[in-house]
Amino acid sequence: MTCIVGITDGHTVTIGGDSAGSDGWHVAVRSDTKVFQVGPYLMGFTTSYRMGQLLRYSLEIGEPDTWDVDRFMATTFIDAVRDCLTAGGYAKTEDGREEGGQFLVGIRGRLYLVDSDYQIGHTAAGYAAVGSGYLVALGSLHSTARSPIDSYSRALMALEAAVELTGEVRPPFTVLQST
C-alpha cells in the first residue's frame, strides 16, 4: 500500500513517503502524510494509517538520555510504542505474541526500521525501505549509494521508481530531513 524510504549519512536522516492508501482493491491518494516529525524523531510508516496516527499524535517519549541510542531504541522507545499502540486499540496479540506494524525512525543521525514484532533494525547500508514498493526503492537507493546525489533527491528518485513499478504507490511525496 505504500513506500517509505530512509537514508542516513550518520548525521542527517532523510525519510520520504508516498500518499497512497489502499485496501488491496482500491488505491486513494490521501492528504494525511505518512512522514512526520514528533519531537526529535523523524518517522515514516506503512501497515496502517491508524498506527501512524497513534505514533504521530499519542506517542509520548523523550529524547534518548544516554550515549547508547541503540539500547534506548530497543527498550525505552519500543516500550513507549507498545504502550501507545495498545492504549489506542491497535496492537494485536495472537498466540501470546504481540504485533504492531512497520515504520522507519530517524534520531541523532541514525536510521531505524521498526518491524511488526517490535524489533529494531539499524542498517549498515545507510538506507532502508518499507511498504509494497520497498524492493524497487531499495534497488534505486543501492544504485545511487556512491553517487554525489544528495539524500533528498535520492529519496525522491526511489519513490518515483516505486510509483513506476509498483501498483499501490502514488505521489505526491513528503520528504523530511532531520539532524
Distance between the termini: 28 Å
Number of strands: 13
Which series of helices and strands comes N to C? EEEEEEHHEEEEEEHHE
- Bin the strand percentage: 25-35%
Helix-residue proportion:
25-40%
Oligomer: single chain
Query: What CATH architecture label applies?
Result: 4-Layer Sandwich
How many domain units?
1
Tell me the structural class: alpha+beta
Question: Rounded to an integer, what's the Rg over CA atoms?
Answer: 15 Å
CATH class: Alpha Beta
Overall morphology: globular
Overall pLDDT metric: 95
Query: What is the CATH H-level superfamily?
Result: Aminohydrolase, N-terminal nucleophile (Ntn) domain
Which regions contain 5 or more consecutive residues with pLDDT less than 50? none
Strand order in the largest sheet: 5-6-9-10-11
From the 3D structure, determine the CATH topology.
Glutamine Phosphoribosylpyrophosphate, subunit 1, domain 1
Describe the structure.
- This protein has 179 residues and is of the alpha+beta class.
- The chain has a single domain (4-178), classed as Glutamine Phosphoribosylpyrophosphate, subunit 1, domain 1 (4-Layer Sandwich), CATH 3.60.20.10.
- It has 4 helices and 13 strands.
- The protein has helices at residues 49-57, 69-87, 134-143, 151-165; strands at residues 4-8, 13-17, 20-22, 27-29, 35-38, 41-45, 92-94, 97-99, 103-107, 110-114, 120-121, 127-130, 174-178.
- The strands form 4 sheets. The chain has a 5-stranded antiparallel beta sheet. The protein has a 4-stranded antiparallel beta sheet with strand order 12-1-2-13, covered by helices on one side. Strands 3-4 form a two-stranded antiparallel sheet.
- The protein starts with a strand and ends with a strand.
